[in-house]
Amino acid sequence: MINQVAKIILGLIFVFTLCIFPILYPQETEYVPQIEILDSLSPELKEAISRFRLKEINPHLFSVRPYFKTFTLVREKKHYLYAGFQVVAINLVVWTYDVSVLKAGWARISLQSILNNFKYGFEWDDNSFKTNQNEHPFHGAMYFSSARSSGLDFWESMIYPFVGSFMWEFVMETNRPSANDFIMTPLGGSL
Length: 191
What we know:
Structural class: mainly alpha
Number of domains: 2
Order of helices and strands: HEEHHEEHHHHHH
Helix content: 55-70%
Largest sheet: 2 strands, antiparallel
Radius of gyration: 24 Å
Number of helices: 9
Number of strands: 4
């Protein structure tokens, strides 16, 4: 029963995150005015650029000068909510895999296990080096990348690995929350 419910929830989140949400909130770009960089170059470099041409092919089509004269910066709009949905979707995908495929006992969560995690708080776990130093930073990097791909800067994106790790440690496991996992996941994933 829980496997079917988890698959339905996962499918709905997948459809919403990848199909519906981008339609509702399209990733619009904002164009910054062109910046003249030729003025900041030394006179020798300006002269070298103006003389460098690929005359063998076609001097009118190929020239370095237009590429150095101006360029346009593209700035994406920030989508905080979309990044949050991606973090929740990552946790639900991993949790569904743990419950359905691995049949992990620690992934069989209930309301009581969630309340116990909040009641008893953090402990220091003794997981393997591979788990603590490889898998947790990998998940932190997925949280961080979801925020960065939603147009957030570095410092804004740092919040999302902490939120994703907090959600996982307190809500997605029956084990008590691990302090070393909560530290390693966001810091290892974003740095």
